[in-house]
Design brief:
single chain, four-stranded antiparallel β-sheet, alpha+beta, Tetrahydropterin Synthase, Chain A, 4 helices, elongated, 141 residues, 4 strands
Length: 141
């Protein structure tokens, strides 16, 4: 009989990065009118929550090999994003706003490429103490 497990595990990571909101089609005044002070380069100390789900291994009692999860996130996310400027340094952001809404999608796509033994459930990126974005993956998953 298959388990109906609904256990979730979240691992938290941090990194610092910068971004600038602007629309290349607009002049400086239009960009400032829409994005305000965020039309200038600015940075954040981001907190990344990676939540996985899956079957608990009866031999270990664990849902995921945390060493494997940490290795993936550090290699594909933290080491890539830390001290970067998203729209300049990360090719995925070419032609996209460097918003947290796009950032969670980028992170999801990068982590799922190598994740084994569990399923990615949610990505949460905390940009400021009052703003965070959650992503549960593409709708067709």
């Amino acid at each position: 009989m298959k388990s109906t497990n609904t256990t979730f595990l979240t691992k938290i990571f941090t990194f610092a990065a910068a971004h600038q909101y602007k629309n290349e089609k607009w002049n400086e005044e239009e960009n400032f009118a829409v994005f305000g002070k965020d039309a200038k380069v600015h940075g954040h100390n981001y907190t990344l929550h990676v939540t996985v789900t899956g079957e608990i291994n009866p031999d270990t009692g664990f849902l995921v090999d945390l060493g494997h999860l940490k290795k993936i996130v550090k290699k594909r996310i933290v080491n890539v994003l830390d001290h970067s400027q998203f729209e300049i340094d990360i090719p995925w952001f070419k032609g996209k706003q460097p918003s947290t809404e796009n950032l969670v999608i980028f992170i999801w796509e990068e982590i799922t490429k190598e994740l084994e033994g569990c399923k990615l459930h949610k990505i949460r990126i905390v940009e400021t103490p009052t703003i965070y974005t959650d992503y549960y993956g593409p709708l067709d998953d």
